[in-house]
Fold each of these.
Amino acid sequence: MSKLVLKFESSVLKEVAVGVKEVSIGRSPDNGIIIDNPAVSHYHARVFNEEGRLMLEDFGSMNGTFVNGQRVKMVTLKPGDSVGIGKHTIVVTDSAEIRASSPSNGNGMPAPPKINETVMLDTKERREFLQRVAAVGESSQVAPARLKIATLVVKRGRTDQREYTLADKLTIIGKSAMATVKLRGWFAPKTAAQITRRDDNTYYIGAAGRTPMVNGVAVKQQTKLASGDVIEVAGAELEFVYRD
Amino acid sequence: MAITARHPTAAGTEIEAGACTDTGRVRKINEDSFSVAEEISLFILSDGMGGHASGEVASRLTVDTILAHCRAAEENPSLELSGYRIPGVTEASNRLASAIRLANLTVYEAALKHVRAPDSKRTGMGATVVAAQFVEGRATVAHVGDSRAYRLRGDTFKQLTEDHSFIAEQVRRGMLTEQEARRSNLQNVLVRALGVETEVLVDVREEIVLEDDTFLLCSDGLTRELSDTQIAAVLKDADGADEAAACLVDLANRAGGADNITAIVLRCAPKAVGAFGQAARLGRWFRGSR
């Protein structure tokens, strides 16, 4: 037996079986599927069984009825077809169809997607995610709070601030508009050095026009910064400190 | 790769467009695609997803389909719209939304033919899209997914699009704070994308365009690496649109380059002084200061 699943965006609103009786669709409350939307006609379309086949008929509606993107007047429907009426979608399913299970992580809940891939959540997974988040709290999906805040304390040199909190993935030291640590002075370079943050909250300094020194040693490619390290570049001296 | 184009739109605003795309420092291929179609003031960016380079196919199909439909509509304005007409917006907006719905179907069909995820009916190929078209002093911005459009006006840098991502939805529902969202493990989970279902809801927004407005279209590879403040600083400081776009990509790479990076920078400059120069100058004076 066929089922019609009424959806709006990816949310399921209603499921209706099509049996001996036809299912009419429209804005009027005496329809089998009521879609209360100005783009939908009062009696917009109907779905019915005709000699074993599932049929869709548009009642000459104003904005039309679409099946898989094509405007139709009267067509046969098959499982998987997507009927578009106004902004709503009615998906045709065969209730005997077994829905393949999504990959799970043993708890029976869908496994969280890999971090690096972009994935689409469909309706069922999304509902389960929302329930899980509500039950467990957001902390399950959030990386542990960074207890250490990285800062640069200016020991020597002309800069726009005395101290800087490193809040971004990239921190530029220089005179350019996009520098966080803005060097003052006629001869200050546009960019002198850059500090990058890795996913594990470690910070690395590298050259960006000038070669910085860390604790008196010139930086070759990238040097990892430890709390208390002293950076010298372009006439400025900065101490890198992790604060709580 | 960076390109520049300067051309007038209908209402006396010239748009200087600059674009740059890069694979980034981690990914092996670039699955972002973009198009700068200056003759119809249409700018499109798409970020593809799916295994085995199907992301590249998805984003290319997206951009090409939208471009073809909009170009065809320029020749033939009575070309039928795909899907329903959105009330209360301009013809250009409806046309752009229609183009994106067509792109959705194109990617969906291509995915059915070539790629199938191991579970259920879900196709294994998809794409985001963000597109802007400038017509008669208005910008239409349409999008699906988490690629973004921003506008810089004076000192205000504003995100014009709402991300169709799980995290962004949680923030909108008040279940997550902005700060927690930035630290979440689930940054890449989308709730709306092209090519996944036969129907897609396209978000459309119209903005009046003022002189000196700068628009930015970008993939998330840019915004994951740089803060809004940093991006705005580059847009303000750069000499030209292409320099801005190249600089943004370079900085995103320096910050980590974890994903493909694409930026399209659109600078709205006052029309070059000519026959209408006098009128334009008077108009500015009467409008007063912003």
Amino acid sequence: MMPIGVLTAIGVACGLIIFFVYLKVPQKVKGLDKTEEINSILPGMNCGACGYPGCFGYAQALSQDADLITRTPCSQVLQNPESLKKLEKALGITLDASAMSKKALVHCTGNSEVICSYSGAQTCKGAAQLLRGYKRCPYACLGLGDCVEICPQGAVFMDQGKNVAVVDSEKCTGCGLCVTECPQNLIELVPAGTKIAFLCNYKPLKNIPGRERCDFGCIHCRKCFKSCEDEAIEWNKETALPEFNQEKCTLCHKCIEACEQNTLADFTKIGKEAELVSV
Amino acid sequence: MNELIAIFLGMVLINNFVLVRFLGLCPFFGVSKKIGSAVTMGFAVTFVMTIASLATWLIRNYILLPFDIEFMEIVIYILVIATLVQIIELFIKKTNAALYFAFGIYLPLITTNCAVLGITLINATQDYSLAGSAIAALGGGLGFTLVLFMMSGIRERLERANTPKAMKGLPVAFVTATLLGLAFSGFGGMI
């Protein structure tokens, strides 16, 4: 009898202590309930793209400053209209999701020729430290898949044929992890409604034209600019690159056909036709 | 005083919780992928272990021994430790937000950590005094933190290493653990 009595007594005492602490210790930390409500709406994958330590840290920051969502939005929530609505309700504000939603785009066709064999650490970061990689173009995608590894959504794939990273824009949530991961700075977050993708990141190096570095690089010929009938392309004279106005563009593909270097592509079709292999 | 130092060093290095006693192996592999989370986990375990060993020492010496029901110690210790962790979490959540966010998910996880139950049972079998129990728990926790820190540092570098595909991730971590254990067995017999 004795042991049972002691065990019961200790159990009841423990329960009472928890109850007492729950009731009597004053709640000095304010706003935790709201934080937990927001936290339950957030995706909970802790990608860290918002810059806060995990979803809970982001929820805490949001509970103190609701406007934060417009400055550093959670890209996962933006993808999901249902949770966005819940978050709007929890924060008491309205949001325009389409204006904030972004997708990653790799500015490279991956066609630059491999000029030496590399057998070091099999990461882009390792390869990029040695003379900016092993391809003829120093700005080319190295194809070792740092971005593939870091993507929490599995949205980045390697196109094995061309040895270039490709983003599946349907899966991409625009968290931007791959943007900081890429040592070549090839990946950019573009608005989700982008129509024409510019697939080159070549910056002229000591007057060596892009043509000598890569068969598919931009040679600044302005053919795309001239071909556009909707006035959707403007020519930036300083960078000598085309700038696309997505609102005017009707996706007639005239610029894509006009580009002899195949530097342009239909953004909505990127990642659909390529031979996709996950590393 | 000398005895306390001997207990402390013995717990940190010679009878290290993870590598010699094989306690707390789940966090050793589960939370050792990043240095930051490994160290946080280590300190949370140290904290809970110290408080738990103090509480269980009191329970043992003022309840279990007088009533002569020492065979109940595992059940009662688990009950007390679980309650203690709940109280601490509740208390921290209500009073100190910074600490609550720092410990985060780790504190409730520790309730079921075998290292915490282990230290209380070791204290019981060794018959340490109150100060001895606290020092033993502190040393054990710090030893746990040390090993987790070393392991996470090694694993962060192993991620970059060119390991065969079959050995990537956990398998190579197991091999690393055996090498670490061998190194720590070198401390055996120091005291």
Amino acid sequence: MAAVTYPDTKVIGFISENIIPVQVLFDVKPLSTDFNIKWTPTLITLDSKGKEHHRTLGFLAPDELIASLLLGIGKSHFETDRFDGALECLERVLKEYPNSDSAPEATYLLGVCRFKSTNDPKPLKAAYEKLKAQYPTSAWTKRAYPYRLL
Amino acid sequence: MDKEIKWEADLDQGLARASSERKTVLLYFYNPG
């Protein structure tokens, strides 16, 4: 990460604009215990109260990191019922990084966010259909499988 | 534009900045070895 991803100009710009970066050694107590760190690199998205919303383990290339951070910010909004903010982040994942590993989960959550903000179940079915068409082997496609019946 | 990421080393300080700047935090655990 330090050699390839963090020096990337796009990553530097994204982090500068969107997120507060904190780096700590993997064995510093009590954080390593509090967050149950067993391997590195571990990257965790927290809200401003310190609550965890997203976690990844292992190397991420620059575009994968930005997509993952957008997903993490979106999940932070989603899990605190700020659906407009969540939709904005999740839509950016799909628009700017549709081939990233974060895109299937973003597709799933986008459907859930749209459903929760409208009470209309159609976005759930639309999410499944998009997952089936664009990410047929993703675990998120399997998780959305029941929505085909809506 | 910044030429490198300006990492915070202290989580409490990072959370305080996140609160005042209305942002989320990336907490990165690394192994320098």
